[in-house]
Design goal:
39% strand, mainly beta, 284 residues, 6-stranded antiparallel barrel, Thrombin, subunit H
Length: 284
């Protein structure tokens, strides 16, 4: 069944999508949020050194990092430009399963690639903790991260972030609004982690989360956690999935979390107290 005006919708969405490059890393995608140069992408895309953008019309810009939230996996960039084709944003709380979904991005070097599918669900995925995702059966590949997931009218309903099983996961547009409005992400540890298997002699469950990156001035950095440390769990419960860490971080207000971890060899179990629920100003 043809969708009236579908070509115009996708063309407009392409013009609101940009190529994002950070340092020597591979390219990702971003969305023009406002016509005066505000761009939204994933925090894991805008990571590292110099960030540059290429617009649909071929113009290239150096971008300034305005804000970044690794917990939400969102980053806001600024470029010196006006009259940009900004995206129209929908209320993600109104998205329903079965609706048409459109994803635009730059996967594997193909600029402005289009894929379509339908919304599968909006909500949490047990293995990934309590946070909400817009879940769609659109096909994503490396380079789609940070690009738009839109409805049949071309309105943004999410920022494409990852693939879980056969579903694409996008950060809901309402979460992006909260991020830009400065609504705090309270349980921010400030680490990028990856699941790993470890000897059961070191941890009964044989599962851990190795720290790949520690954000400066984060709860993890102030607790002296380091890249390469392996998080095993809290004092009450061992981690068995990435979602267990997200669950442990949930809460509100100033609070402490006791974590168990390994550093170096597997001979010594270490413990650390992490202070959550507060943001400290970066050093000048």
């Amino acid at each position: 069944m043809a969708v009236t005006g579908f070509g115009e919708v996708t063309e407009s969405l392409r013009r609101s999508t940009v190529v994002v490059r950070a340092g020597k890393r591979g390219g990702g995608s971003g969305v023009i949020w406002t016509s005066d140069g505000s761009i939204i992408t994933n925090a894991h895309v805008a990571r590292g050194g110099k960030v540059s953008l290429r617009l649909w019309d071929g113009r290239e810009f150096d971008a300034a990092l305005a804000s970044r939230d690794p917990r939400r996996d969102l980053a806001a960039l600024r470029i010196q430009a006006t009259n940009l084709p900004s995206v129209s944003v929908a209320d993600s709380s109104q998205v329903r399963p079965g609706e048409l979904a459109i994803a635009i991005g730059n996967p594997l070097g193909f600029v402005g690639a289009l894929t379509t599918g339908v919304i599968h669900a909006v909500g949490a995925i047990p293995e990934l903790g309590p946070r909400s995702w817009v879940q769609a059966d659109v096909r994503l590949a490396p380079g789609n991260s940070g690009g738009p997931l839109a409805d049949a009218r071309g309105r943004l309903i999410g920022i494409n972030t990852m693939v879980a099983g056969r579903l694409a996961l996008a950060i809901p547009s309402n979460t992006v609004r909260d991020f830009l409005a400065g609504v705090p992400s309270d349980g921010w540890l400030g680490v990028t982690v990856r699941p790993v298997r470890i000897p059961r002699t070191a941890a009964p469950g044989g599962f851990g989360l190795v720290i790949l990156e520690v954000e400066p001035h984060s709860a993890a950095s102030y607790a002296s956690l380091l890249t390469g440390d392996i998080l095993l769990g809290t004092e009450e419960r061992a981690f068995a999935s990435l979602g267990d860490l997200s669950n442990a971080l949930e809460g509100s207000g100033r609070r402490q979390l006791r974590l168990q971890f390994l550093r170096g060899d597997y001979s010594r179990l270490r413990r650390v107290t992490v202070q959550l629920g507060e943001r400290r100003a970066a050093a000048a």
